[in-house]
Amino acid sequence: MPDLLRELAAHNPLFLAGATLLCAATMLISVRMICRAAMARRHSQRLTRLFLAAAVAANGVWATHFMAMLGRQSAVQTAYDLPLTLFSVIVACGFFLAAWWVEIRTKGGSRSPLTALLMTAAVGGMHYIGIAAITSDASNHVQPLRIGLSLGSGFLLFLLGTWLLREERGHRRAFAAVAWILGVVLLHFIGMPADHMTAAMSHAAHRADSVSLAAMVMGGSGSFLGLALVFLLLEYRGVRHRNEENLRARHFADVAIEGLIITSGGAIVDANAAFWELVGAARPDVGLVRSRLPDLQTEEDVQALVRQEKPREMVMVRADGETIPVEVYGRHVSWQGKNRDVLAILDLRARKEAEMALQELAVRDMLTGIGNRAFFVSTLTDILEHGKRHGRCLAVFLVDVDRFKSINETCGHATGDAVLGAIARRLQLLVPQGAISARIAGDEFAVAFDVTERDAGEFAVYLAHQLRMPLPDHPDELPVSVSVGFVVSSDETPDGDTLLHRSGIALLAAKQAGRGNAREYDQSFDTSIRERIRMEREIRQALDREEFFLEYQPIMSTGDHCLTGYEALVRWQHPERGRVPPDQFIGVAEECGLIADLGEWVVRRACADAVSWKNGLGVSVNVSPVQFAMSDLPAVISAALGDSGLSPDRLSVEITENTLLQGRENVRILRQLREIGVGIVMDDFGTGYSSLSYLREFQFDRIKIDRSFIGDMLRERQSAGIVDLILSLGRVLGVDIVAEGIETADQLSYLEARACTLVQGYFIGRPSREIAPAPSAAALAVSP
Question: What pTM was computed for the model?
Fold first, then answer.
């Protein structure tokens, strides 16, 4: 120790101070650059920063070494071997790079002993190679004990500095640089050769490839300053880039609709403008997270929200103490190089108000201001359950405005709306306190309250009478009247929907009895309805089970008594009820929409059967007006023809006059069928709204006289006259006339005498699954 103090006293204080400051600057810059490298995201960027840090540290320590040597009075004239001296810098740079690369690659832990060992190799290698570069044999004059002490002390201090770099945060990481500075200083002074040996070195002869100590100091200091300048430029660029990023992030955050806050340890670190506006406080007045969001009392609550990865509704306390509903999202973010939590806060006040408005719309009729069907049914069920528990009956009255469609059509929808509003207002005045009322359909109102069965009947009549009123703004028109259907609950009534259904059945009975009537529900009312529902279900099953089949009735030419084709008639063989007449299921199929599926099946079956007929005759199928609206009829027929291979000219489509009454769209569809090549037949002509304009607008291939006229033409002059008129019309228009329903020889003779082109009926041939090869013998016996 006395020798060390004596050697230290032999140094110039100014050079010692300069060397210490140079070493301090080196290590502080190195610590800063190592931290920057650790934060780099790209591998190449991280390696570049580490290399620059290693170069700065190597040059700084190298310059520190030679500046300290320059301060030693006995070594001023010492000369150094240039290649070996430069090699010492390269060794230091390499070991520093390896040391810090090892350290930053370890996430969440540290390899401090290995890092410290590599740093000791960097500083010690540079130091002793530098001593070995002295042009005299100086390296042999450093005692082994001093070499061991210098390297050991350096290792311990480098180990301490590495640990501090890993554990400390922010400016406290400067303590790591202090430990490294002490490590460099101790390694240098303990590892210096004895003073008398250095004096001998100073008298050694200079070689041609040696350089002076002053030159070494100047070169090392210059290179260090150059690298330090590069570091300062990079640091300046990094700071400016971070400031720009922070400013841009601030601008983005401030234009966000949601309130955004950055939190750490339960405290609010920063927030955007939307948050300040939402809180209603100045920016410094933010405080802790729990002061604004009571549901997030602790940091654990915040972390739980972040892990949840979905929004949570909670209340927020404003600066004035008001609580407002908000929705909060949580995410982990990197903010200013640090791990933080960001909370996005969305104001739910507008949404909650909209939800309340929607809830009001969901139960309120906007036109009349009273409840709607959803409100009535849900409330009705609750009242019904309450009445059952207390032994009370509940009556439901369904009120329907008579002729309401006519009111809209003749007086306008504004008048119709005025009628509905007047009915609703008067209804509110007529019903007893505690009753519920609602508009449940276009012109239907419902009322419900506790009442006895006798009182219910009297109140229904009272309603029908009191709701009779003059038409608003149209005093000359018929007065408005209502029909009332009602039902009284029993212990077996399951729910409010059932009561409403039964009152609807009673209302239907009231309307069938005439306008302005009231009827109570009777169980016999819905027998027909249940039968209809059953029929609909069985039609669906029959389609799936293939219970339908086709029969073909022949059509005969009166000119030569030869068959010209067949009409396909759908039949239903029920497994329990046997054959079901078409008039019992066709109407139900049309009402429930199954006619589209049934009609498509008929077309496909008829086409498939006709292809197999050896006589090559055509087939006609009946198409309901509903099929025009419910299915793409041209596509259905085209597919049936294509799949079966039947020629289009062998298929005819029979329609009724009601098809044309449904609008010009159906006429367009008929023209599409005509383009396909399918024949078009007017069926049951004379039974509907017969109009010559139909015949002028569309050219039919055939017109069928309804069987009702054929059956009466030999007994009634009027029917005979209509038949003669249709036959004359056909001759004028050049259209074949088909008389259906021929059942006697006299009917056939009458029609043949009047040049009816085609005939059809039981007398010609009965419908059967197998086509008839020729007309019946009785028909053939009649002379053409």
Answer: 0.46
